[in-house]
Amino acid sequence: MAHINLENDLPGIRGLMAYSPETEKPLNLLAETLLRDDDNTLSRGDRELIGTYVSYLNDCFFCQNVHGALAGHYMGCNIEEIDAIKQDFTSTEISPKMKALLAIAARVQIGGKAVTEEQIEAAREEGATDKEIHDTVLIAASFCMFNRYVDGLATWAPQDRQFYVNRAPQRAEDGYISSVFK
Amino acid sequence: MPYIALEDHLPGITGLLEYSKGTAQPIRELTQFLLRGPSTLSEAERELIATVVSHGNQCTFCTTAHTAAADLLAGETETAASVKQNIETAPVSDKMKALLTIASQTRESGRAVTAEAVARAKDAGATDVEIHDTVLIAALFCLYNRYVDGLGTALPAEPGYYDVLAGRLVNHGYTRLPQGYDHLKKTFTTN
């Protein structure tokens, strides 16, 4: 049971967003801009994967399954393949640039100061641009917010992971704006 | 030196918000509502939550800026200085001690927030909305602190920068200045 009375039975962040519509709007706009804006050289799959990985490191069940299912949808991967990336991305087939960006995201999850100049250099050597590095850090930082919001208020999450996989194609179609009741 | 190219006269978060205006807009809007919108928590109390979280995350820019804003709103410097050292002995209400404890737990991890800490806040009179806002403010500053330090942003060269910033946060708020920030080029530089 959530720590506060949300007056609805929606799971995860959707329950919080229905409870607090004033904060829902900017939160969803941030997710929409960061994760879906087409003016971006990182694919939607790349960006969802960063969100998934950080949510996994923060041990947030709801977020890592929502965004893992979306990453899988965009990348054409099943849950097992997404799980393998979460557990050890270095030994998977993702691009060297994405490996360098996920390494940066993992440090952001620990704390801003944990990111090193060497990691930034390594990402640049794999072709990462300023904007890609910026977006990686901001996506990771944003999920450090989303995960804390979801778990800090003890929201509930469907335990059947297929639930998230089934919803992903429609979410990919609709986007995050006004996603609360859909 | 920041890890990406930012404007020299804009230290800390300010350069990032100008670098990426598309993402800045919802971040600013969220902050404006949480820290300046209608609430049963005072603006000074909400700045204390931001201060405690930024201090716990060792983010120098955010801690100094929100300490200055809390000080300006409260008209004294003792409270903000005290909550950073020890929430339990700081000169704040029992409700604020309980909410600042929830904020500190949220900073650690969402999963670190205990039912006991929430019960203590409710016993001290905290409403559901106050608890909700405390968790979301703390979570938001976990974003800010990581954004600011994760991209290696610069600190202002002049300590007076924070007083000017605090004045802006108190008198104008968190929305973007309509005229932008070019006027600061004359006054400030970064280290």
Tell me about this structure:
Chain B: InterPro entries: AhpD-like, AhpD_core, CMD-like, Uncharacterised_peroxidase-rel. Chain B: Residues 29-78 form the Carboxymuconolactone decarboxylase-like domain. Chain A is mainly alpha-helical. Chain A has a single domain (42-174), classed as AhpD-like. Chain A is 68% helix and 0% strand. Chain A has 9 helices and no strands. Chain A has helices at 12-19, 21-36, 44-57, 61-75, 79-87, 96-110, 117-125, 130-152, 161-174. Chain A is globular, with a radius of gyration of 16 Å. Chain B has a single domain (12-184), classed as AhpD-like (Up-down Bundle). Helix content of chain B is 63%, strand content 0%. The mean pLDDT of chain B is 96. The longest helix of chain B is centred in the C-terminal third of the chain and has 23 residues, at 128-150. By secondary structure, chain B is mainly α. Chain B has helices spanning 12-19, 21-36, 43-56, 60-74, 78-85, 94-108, 115-123, 128-150, 160-171. Chain B contains 9 helices and no strands. The chains are: A mainly alpha (182), B mainly alpha (191). Chains A and B meet through helix 2, helix 6 and helix 8 of A and helix 2, helix 6 and helix 8 of B.
